[in-house]
Design brief:
heterotrimer; A alpha/beta (542); B mainly alpha (379); C mainly alpha (430); B: 379 residues; mainly alpha; Arp2/3 complex 21 kDa subunit ARPC3; 2 domains; 11 helices; 60% helix; globular; disordered N terminus; C: 430 residues; two-stranded antiparallel sheet; 15 helices; 57% helix; 3% strand; disordered C terminus
């Protein structure tokens, strides 16, 4: 269906080719997963399929890309609309119209499909993706998972043979991701659509993939069956890493595969000392830095947070979990003092951040919002840093020093918008840390980060805590939580439904358990590195 | 991230381009000889100073390099930052594949050729001129209205007829401007900027004449050229009218007037840069605020004043006397309130954020890579 | 509202927006033919009744009230203008205000002075006529769905129309983005105030919007936007000749209309002919665009009837004005009470028929869709999460069938799942 014939792609401004001598054939009805680190060329590969690269982006394509026998050199991307359906990373940004039904019809309108046919296909697609009840809804009021499914439906109505998905589940919470994946697998299995998807959160998708394309980062690709490629891949989901560690062959791709082989490993681990999580108490006078009692947040009459009480101890990382809309963000904003708070008290070392001015509140509690870019408005990284120093009346260079500690080597004259997701996160964090807050709140910090960036960021969060700060992070990312947090608070409908040490809360939960825990439960191992340490300990003792 | 990354082995050499199927996207939409754009020769010469491989010339084998969009030698950017910078995974789907933007700090040389994303071909220019002429007359008819009773009966109808005719005229000009095909990037930019203008409008309306539409229109016209400015002026007001259900007989006149403002912003001298550019744009912003108020008042004059007050137009009077009356009318009714408020808003907004907004828009234009060379070869 | 008048046997549907516009223009034409206040008020009443019976529940349907206010304002300002600048023509002086002569440069104009009944009535009649026309347009605004209207633009304007469609769908997102950024400013101290604060808001929003526009362009490109055939050179030539010829005609026509010494044919007929020719060129040029419309609005009996009523109303009144214009323009000199004649009243009343002839409007199902998502904030969800803390191990590995109904799950939006704007506003902090 899709053929890459020795494809090399060059962008006009780049020294190195984004893709180098890529040979790839994807057959009909295959689900092909493209993985690799940020910037390894995943988007280029996907864009080349329908000719956006280079028609849209500019650049030079050496070699040939054919879809259904048609070369992308022969016609512009719009002439591929009936062959290739492409859904971008942010579905909302790609919507042209404003209601679900119009959006589903848009592609067909461009293709000049007859109104009767159009009507029929819209109905079919609504059913196929299970979004019939949304048909008249404005697109921006949909949740992320619904938007993603509408976006898929919007390209499906043209009956393309190939579906190209760029990060379809990266930004979704686990349940929404499952909805989207269920829709995708149905398309592959029932309709024989060829799907090419790039995804950071491999643990979600890899088990469905027929073929894996790994981009190591030098422009080349590695193609093969998932377990072959993962054996050598630089990125791998935890279950695969566990498989590598335990020496299972072929590598397990799903929790089920792994669990069926894990009896021996569980046996080996049974007598090992339980992993020590979290920190040793800092001292006897270990007073909590932030104490919140019975916090209430309401929008109009709708309660978002219902009488939640939280204590954040110095040196501890607390994860706030729960599905979207459960009040996580509202709670963070209320704790920082910038968001609304209709009831309850918040005290940071005796001061309520809502009572004091914005600058003072910032010195008490630093919050990195979900879209960190909202805080950046200057033209270079250096200017942002200087501005941050001025804002918090910190000595000159404070922010830059912090940034260099968090992520060294960001060129000062770079535009903040040109930073990668991880770099931007670091910049905003540095800006917020310039005010030296004792409490740091992070809202969905790992969105859009690849495994490496996530690991780096996790280490960084631990470091912040080890300096005596209290850290509270709201996230969906169970693997990240497993590696980083000491305590987990689960919110549902604005109420705390679980609060306890990470292992206790997470291990038994179907929604919040990391893959390693699912494989090894009931034993409380959460991450591959814990297992590795335990095994090493076991060998040392033997 | 090194500064010197322009390695000579960047392929897309002229050889490749020449032997392969060289195609370009949107070559047809780009003005072949739009004024103010450097010739391919000068662009190439500019490039040859920098340690650059002959990459762009590969494309030049096809449609040519007259589609110059970048400052010729403004390349002191980290070269391999494509690795991390710009290749961001979220919300940047295209950025990740596009040539990523360059740092905006220094724009050492003014890009002489702005991205003329909506081309004004000679025929379009004629259409634009004719329609503007007719439109102008429809604004200013009271000054020239004939004295005879016969025509008087007409002059009561004239504004109503104009209300019907003007939308057709605007439609024709817009169709003509887009007949070369507005490419998707320009169109999306147009849509988003119209939305910004439309969303900005209610922010200011009502509070002491603060009118925020023009500030972005002027800046966008400046960056994206006269054709884009003209279309943006119309689409902004139209979208705003639809959003607030404010479609009325005044709408075509507002659209035409603001289109002229956008067009004018695009026609301002290109060479002016830096601080003087802001001064010039702020001045133009003030001028356009008064201009808009003036012509809209002119259109509304007969409706407000009727024909039998001291400030009404008198058919058949010399133009100057009518104009005199009108000036007094407009001074009393709006100049000191609305128009001055609008002018002040424009000047303040352009002075305070003009430079930053220009930088964002220019960066967007660069990232969009309008007319970026596209080439294929089969290898 | 309209739902109180359920009509049997007639399916609710949205009428073609063009039909409402033509109807309203017909009524506006009728209004332009008279200054008789009784007739004008009758026209306003007709428009109001039709709007009340046939508008939907979309936001634009509520705009009619604004137009009524605007009409009132027009009448008021017109009368006020007469009082201030009137110059006191007329015999029946009502009262006299102290006169203020303006300096010499102001063309010898005096402010205030004697106020005559004729003056006031003249202002009232004129203002009322204009106000009535504005109200008619307002009725069209309230009745016609602007988005459907955009779908009906001729092919040649397809691209510009697309830009407006994009603008309409992006604008609400931008408003949300502005609110979000404003809220976020406090996190950085947010010390600047007023215009200085503008930068911290404008730049992130604008930069975000620009990035979004690129993503949108890529999406549109890969979804077939701009898939239009190319015009043959001959067709291009025809279009060009038509458009240019028509425009020259328009220019000549405008000139002829203003210059009294020009032959009559050079005026209005030339203007209209020129417009028609140019419009023909526009339509011809748009033939290349082949695209279709989802759920197209078709012209059916209802549309035709509505248009006939509007045009009929205007046409009848126009005919009346040719036959017997006296009643249409009440005399100010000598002063006389406006009279109501049968024929013009009938003409106006033709315009009210759509209140019954047009099919009832389709009401959008649940009002305010955004709220539904959040409302069922009770059903069995805590149980699920709570249960998770106790131990139903490894049941739902990734990929199992979704347990939570789709509309409860959230995703990557911005913070909370997006709610209606009113909610978003609540969320912002000063």
């Amino acid at each position: 269906m899709i053929e890459f014939d020795r494809v090399t792609v060059h962008y006009p401004e780049a020294a190195e080719p984004a893709l180098r001598e890529v040979d790839l054939t994807v057959g009909e009805g295959e689900l092909c997963l493209v993985v690799g680190r940020t910037g390894a060329g995943k988007s280029t590969l996907l864009g080349a399929i329908n000719g956006l690269v280079p028609h849209f982006t500019g650049g030079h394509l050496h070699g040939e890309v054919r879809v259904g026998g048609v070369s992308t050199a022969s016609r512009p991307p719009r002439e591929f609309a009936h062959l290739v359906g492409r859904v971008g990373q942010d579905p909302l940004a790609g919507f042209v119209t404003d209601t679900v039904e119009d959006e589903l019809a848009y592609t067909m309108e461009q293709l000049g499909v007859r109104p009767e046919v159009m009507r029929k296909r819209v109905e079919e697609t609504l059913d196929l993706l299970g979004i019939a009840e949304l048909r008249r809804r404005p697109l921006r009021t949909l949740s992320g998972g619904q938007q993603q499914r509408v976006a898929i439906g919007a390209v499906l109505t043209a009956h393309p043979a190939v579906l190209v998905l760029d990060e379809p589940t990266s930004a979704l919470d686990p349940t929404a991701a499952e909805d989207v994946l269920a829709a995708i697998t149905r398309l592959v299995h029932d309709l024989g659509v060829t799907v090419v998807a790039a995804e950071h959160r491999m643990e979600r998708v890899v088990q469905y993939a027929d073929r894996l394309v790994h981009l190591p980062g030098d422009g080349s690709v590695l193609v093969g069956s998932p377990s072959e490629v993962l054996d050598v891949s630089s990125v791998a989901p935890p279950v695969v890493e566990l498989g590598r560690l335990a020496g299972w062959r072929p590598l397990p791709l799903s929790v089920r595969d792994a669990r069926r082989r894990a009896a021996g490993l569980r046996e080996r681990l049974r007598d090992q000392p339980r992993p020590v999580r979290g920190r040793a108490p800092v001292g006897a006078d270990d007073q909590p830095r932030l104490v919140a009692r019975r916090v209430v947040v309401r929008y109009a009459r709708l309660p978002a947070v219902r009488e939640v009480s939280v204590e954040l101890a110095p040196g501890a990382v607390v994860a706030l979990m729960g599905r979207n809309g459960s009040g996580k963000s509202s709670l963070l904003w209320a704790l920082q003092g910038s968001g609304p708070r209709q009831g309850g008290t918040v005290s940071v070392d005796g001061t309520d951040p809502k009572e004091v001015g914005a600058a003072e509140a910032r010195a008490l509690v630093g919050l990195v919002p979900q879209t960190p870019g909202d805080l950046l408005y200057l033209e270079t990284v250096a200017e942002e840093c200087e501005q941050a120093d001025r804002e918090s009346e910190a000595p000159e260079g404070t922010c830059r020093r912090l940034l260099d500690r968090l992520t060294p080597g960001i060129p000062p004259d770079l535009h903040p918008r040109d930073l990668s997701e991880g770099q931007r996160l670091s910049l905003v964090l540095a800006v917020q840390l310039t005010a030296a807050p004792a409490v740091v709140l992070l809202d969905e910090p790992t969105r859009g980060l690849d495994y490496h960036a996530k690991a780096n960021f996790g280490a960084l969060v631990r470091e912040l805590a080890s300096e005596g700060r209290a850290v509270l992070l709201a996230t969906h990312d169970v693997e990240f939580v497993a590696g980083v947090s000491d305590r987990v608070v689960v919110l549902a409908e604005g109420e705390v439904v679980a609060d306890g040490p990470t292992a206790e809360v997470v291990v038994a939960s179907p929604a919040f358990a990391p893959q390693v825990a699912k494989v090894l439960s009931p034993q409380p191992w959460l991450t591959v590195s814990e297992v590795r340490d335990a095994l090493a300990g076991a060998e040392a003792r033997v | 991230m090194t500064g010197d990354g322009h390695r000579p082995e960047v392929p897309t050499g002229a050889g490749h381009g020449a032997e392969g199927a060289t195609s370009r996207s949107g070559a047809g939409e780009v003005g072949a000889g739009a004024p103010g754009r450097p010739s391919s020769g000068s662009a190439a010469a500019g490039r040859s100073e920098s340690p650059r491989p002959p990459a762009p010339e590969a494309a030049a084998s096809g449609a040519g390099d007259e589609h110059e969009t970048r400052p010729p030698a403004a390349d002191p950017r980290p070269a391999d930052r494509g690795d991390d910078g710009g290749r961001t995974p979220r919300g940047r789907s295209t950025g990740s594949v596009g040539p990523t933007g360059e740092p905006d700090v220094a724009d050492p040389r003014p890009p002489n050729g702005p991205p003329r994303v909506v081309r004004i071909a000679p025929r379009t220019a004629v259409v634009l001129a004719l329609a503007s002429l007719a439109g102008f007359a429809m604004f200013f008819w009271p000054l020239f209205a004939a004295p005879e009773p016969e025509a008087m009966a007409h002059s009561a109808d004239a504004p109503l007829i104009f209300v019907v005719v003007l939308p057709v005229l605007i439609g024709i000009v817009l169709a003509e401007l887009s007949s070369g095909g507005i490419d998707s990037k320009a169109l999306a930019m147009l849509g988003v900027l119209s939305a910004i203008n439309a969303a900005l409008r209610p922010l200011g309306a009502g509070t002491a004449g603060i009118e925020t539409v023009f500030f972005m229109l002027v800046l966008a016209g400046r960056v994206f050229g006269p054709g884009f400015g003209f279309v943006l002026g119309s689409t902004s007001l139209f979208a705003s009218a639809l959003l607030t259900a404010g479609v009325g007989p005044w709408l075509p006149f507002q659209m035409l007037a603001s289109s002229w403002v956008g067009l004018g912003a695009g026609l301002l001298p290109r060479r002016v840069r830096g601080r003087w550019e802001i001064v010039m744009l702020a001045g133009y912003g003030a001028f356009s605020a008064y201009f808009f108020g003036f012509v809209m008042n002119m259109w509304f004059w007969p409706f407000t004043a009727g024909i039998d007050t001291q400030l009404s137009f008198v058919p058949g009077d010399p133009v100057v006397e009518n104009l005199h009356r009108f000036v007094i009318f407009t001074l009393y009714t709006s100049t000191f309130g609305w128009d001055t408020g609008r002018a002040l808003t424009n000047v303040l907004a352009i002075t305070l954020v003009g430079a930053a907004v220009l930088a964002v828009l220019r960066r967007a234009a660069r990232r969009a890579a309008f007319h970026a060379p596209v080439s294929f070869d089969r290898g | 509202m309209t739902s109180r008048f359920p009509e049997r046997g007639r399916l609710p549907r949205t009428l073609h927006p063009g039909a409402w516009w033509l109807w309203a223009l017909g009524l506006a034409t009728a209004a332009s033919r008279t200054t008789n206040p009784v007739l004008l008020v009758l026209i306003i009443a007709v428009a109001g009744l039709v709007v009340a019976r046939r508008r939907g529940d979309a936001p634009w349907a509520l705009a009619f009230r604004l137009y009524l206010l605007l009409g009132a304002f027009i009448v008021f300002s017109r009368v006020l203008f007469r009082v201030v600048f009137g110059g006191g023509q007329g015999d029946h002086i009502l009262f006299t205000l102290p006169e203020i002569p303006l300096p010499a440069w102001a063309a010898g104009i005096r402010l205030f002075g004697p106020v005559a009944v004729e003056q006031l009535l003249g202002g009232l009649y004129d203002g009322l006529r204009l106000a009535t026309m504005v109200v008619c347009i307002g009725a069209a605004n309230a009745l016609a769905n602007p988005k459907r209207l955009l779908k009906a633009v001729p092919g040649a304007l397809y691209q510009v129309g697309s830009a407006v469609v994009v603008a309409l769908s992006v604008a609400p997102q931008l408003v949300e983005s502005v609110l979000r950024v404003r809220r976020a400013r406090r996190l950085r101290g947010g010390r600047q105030r007023g215009m200085r604060a503008l930068r911290g808001i404008v730049i992130p929003v604008l930069a975000d919007a620009m990035d979004r526009s690129l993503a949108l362009a890529a999406a549109m490109d890969s979804r077939g936007y701009g898939r239009v055939g190319t015009l043959s050179p001959r067709a291009r030539l025809v279009t060009g000749v038509l458009v240019l010829g028509g425009l020259v005609g328009v220019c000549v026509g405008v000139y002829g209309l203003m210059d009294g010494s020009a032959p009559r044919q050079l005026g209005l007929p030339m203007l209209l002919a020129g417009t028609a020719v140019a419009a023909a060129g526009l339509l011809w040029g748009g033939r290349q665009v082949r695209r279709s419309v989802h759920r197209p609005d078709r012209w059916r009996l209802g549309e035709v009837l509505v248009v006939c009523c509007g045009i009929g109303s205007g046409g009848l009144l126009y005919l009346t004005s040719q036959v017997d214009a006296a009643n249409l323009y009440p005399s100010l000199n000598p002063l006389a009470w406006p009279e109501l004649a049968l024929l013009p009243s009938l003409a106006v009343l033709v315009g009210v028929l759509p209140a019954w002839l047009a099919p009832p409007p389709e009401l959008s199902s649940p009002p305010a869709g955004g709220w539904d998502e959040r409302r069922p904030a009770s059903s069995g969800v805590p149980a699920r999460v709570g249960g998770s803390a106790e131990g139903t191990a490894g049941l739902t590995a990734a990929g199992a069938e979704p347990v939570v109904p789709a509309h409860r799950t959230g995703g990557g939006g911005d913070g909370e799942p997006p709610g209606p704007p009113s909610r978003a506003q609540e969320r912002t902090t000063p």
